Amino acid sequence: MALLFYSREDDPVAWxxxxxxxxxxxxxxxxxxxxxxxxIDTALVWRPPPGLLAGLPNLRAVFSLGAGVDALLADxxxxxxxxxxxxxxxxxxxxxxxxxALALFYHRRLDLYEERQRRARWEMEMPRPAASTTVGVxxxxxxxxxxxxxxxxxxxxxxGWSRGRKAIEGVASFAGGEELGAFLEGLDIVxxxxxxxxxxxxxxxxxxxxxxxxxxxxxxxxxxxxxxxRDLLDAVERGHLRGAVIDVFREEPLPADHPFWRHPRIxxxxxxxxxxxxxxxxxxVADNIRRLREGRPLRHVVRRERGY
Length: 308
Ligand code: NDP
Ligand code: OXD
Fold this sequence. Notes:
Elements: E1 2-6, H1 12-22, E2 27-30, E3 40-45, E4 61-64, H2 70-73, E5 83-84, H3 89-107, H4 110-118, E6 134-138, H5 142-154, E7 157-162, E8 171-175, H6 180-184, E9 189-192, H7 206-211, E10 216-220, H8 229-237, E11 241-246, H9 259-262, E12 266-268, H10 278-294
Parallel strand pairs: 1-2, 1-3, 3-4, 4-5, 6-7, 6-9, 7-8, 9-10, 10-11, 11-12
The chain binds NADPH dihydro-nicotinamide-adenine-dinucleotide phosphate (NDP) and oxalic acid.
């Protein structure tokens, strides 16, 4: 049996080689060269066109190249086979690195110096210790928990918000909608690492921004549809938020005429916070294929009823 690989963004040749090195008997077929669809029993995909997977009659499992599976779950024709998301050390480390880098960007006031440089102003601010900055991480899953640990290790004061309460050393845990207000109160920097579900869509809105103190910064690394873009523009323009770094957008690539591109206090990065390397990600997929073959439970299976 064969695995179908589909991604417009990942290198199919590198993934094929990494998978075949681990499972020499696995035939990897790269879209659009499907061959006989009946011979395909697994698929490794990133944002496949709706209906593609439904055309594989003998599919037994779908493996996502991404940690977030919102786009897959939005396909009403997605076959009712186990869907496993990507949980991979390289993905986790690169996300934590990005979250830490951006927390440091605001903590060390690099946004202020950028602006002063444009006006040739030599004016320094006395650096403050990391412990004087409170960073809140929304979502304490594989990525959020590791990011929170990196922030703690650097010395920041760290809070985390999730559905259930967590015990992560050095992280104050807040759980559920009823504790969101207390989580947000007094944050200097909020980092969003939530999955996109019906409950979290549009969560970064005027109401949430109003619960942050004046001068807080947003680092949004999760999904475009979490953010109400108009509300962010308004909060930044009124000076309620000091600034934002946004990595994910409702429309990707971000259209050239989008106001975020040219806003002096909104920084845009092209959905680049984190990625899975074939060298490590292929091992995660190969492990699940071995489990599937041997009838053992798969790892990182998405719970469809909760959407992540
Ligand atoms: P996980 O599924 O491991 O973690 C999700 C976390 O969010 C959990 O802590 C969960 O709480 C919490 N959560 C879910 N729903 C709610 C809710 N309604 N209220 C409060 N907390 C909630 O996901 P990952 O950490 O692996 O990934 C997170 C997201 O990061 C992905 O879904 C994707 O959108 C994004 N991402 C972005 C990338 C980029 O390059 N920009 C790269 C990779 C991922 P609990 O633990 O209690 O269930
Ligand atoms: C992911 C992503 O979900 O890259 O892994 O956004």
